[in-house]
Amino acid sequence: DEPLSVLTPEDSWFHFLLDGKLRQRDLLASRSLIIDPYSTKWFNTDPLSEYSGVVYFNENGTLDDPSDDIWGNLNKSDGLNSEIVNDMAIDNRGELFIATTAGINVIPNPSEFGSRINNPISVIREQNATAIVVDPLNRKWIGTGNGLFLMSSDLTNLIANYTVKNSPLPSDIITSLAFDESSGKIYIGTGFGIASLTTPAVKPKAEFEEIFVYPNPFFINSGTNSNVTIDGLVKDTEIKILSITGKLIRTIITPGGRI
């Protein structure tokens, strides 16, 4: 009956009752808990409970003083597509993405607990979104019962859809996702095992160290190695390609990391 607990770096435990209203029966289906940039905790609850959907909680930085705690509940009446929530993710802009059995909802400003809940128009709008992760390029990887979808940052554009028919995925039913920002690998959990996919989305460097450009040498129109990779970029790097005489051929604006 203490639905949320925290262990501090000093090995002290604190337990939060949330006004004593949220009970074990409300958390039977809880499988996702995340913390946003404002230190608010978001977790899903049992869809059949009184507090179905998503619960938010913020202790306002005072673990031992419950008098200033803030908590509440969001459900279909607030704009959620479904009160069966499978996963949640905070993107690189601080927006909260909620994966439900009826698509994705977005809370653009989680710091305002009464702010609107958006329902973006996308190819997965009515699908059962089972898992979601955000890569360093702020793209959304969404698991469904119909494979893995890679969407643009605002979900308006479909970049790729991986299924058993066009990839080595062991199953179209995705159960979990994890992204390794240092390597650019996404790990895909299914009922028939785990698959991984290497992507160019790696976390930008904090400062310039070494830049790797490969293959080197790179031969244009050689029939092989048609792509050149630049690795080790800081955030928002601008790349200029010059001719041997110094003439500007092309400028590329990048998010950093690896392109």
Task: Summarize the main sheet.
Answer: 4 strands, antiparallel
Encode the helix/strand succession as letters. EEEEEEEEEEEEEEEEEEEEE
* Main sheet strand line-up: 3-4-5-6
Mean pLDDT: 89
Taken from the alpha-carbon principal axes, the silhouette is globular
Structural class: mainly beta
| Helix percentage | under 10%
Distance between the termini: 49 Å
- Which stretches are poorly predicted, pLDDT < 50 over at least 5 residues? none
Give me the count of strands: 21
Description:
The chain has 259 residues and is an all-beta fold. It contains no helices and 21 strands. The strands form 7 sheets. The chain has a 4-stranded antiparallel β-sheet with strand order 3-4-5-6, with no helix packed on it. Strand 14 and strand 15 form a beta hairpin. The model has no long low-confidence stretch (mean pLDDT 89).
Question: Would you summarize the structure shown here?
Answer:
This protein is mainly beta. Helix content is 0%, strand content 39%.
Which descriptors would you attach to this protein?
single chain, 259 residues, mainly beta, four-stranded antiparallel β-sheet
Show the helix and strand layout.
Blueprint: E1 4-7, E2 13-16, E3 33-35, E4 41-44, E5 54-58, E6 70-74, E7 85-90, E8 96-100, E9 103-107, E10 129-134, E11 140-144, E12 147-151, E13 158-162, E14 174-180, E15 185-190, E16 193-198, E17 212-214, E18 229-233, E19 238-242, E20 248-253, E21 257-258
Antiparallel strand pairs: 1-2, 3-4, 4-5, 5-6, 7-8, 8-9, 10-11, 11-12, 12-13, 14-15, 15-16, 17-18, 18-21, 19-20
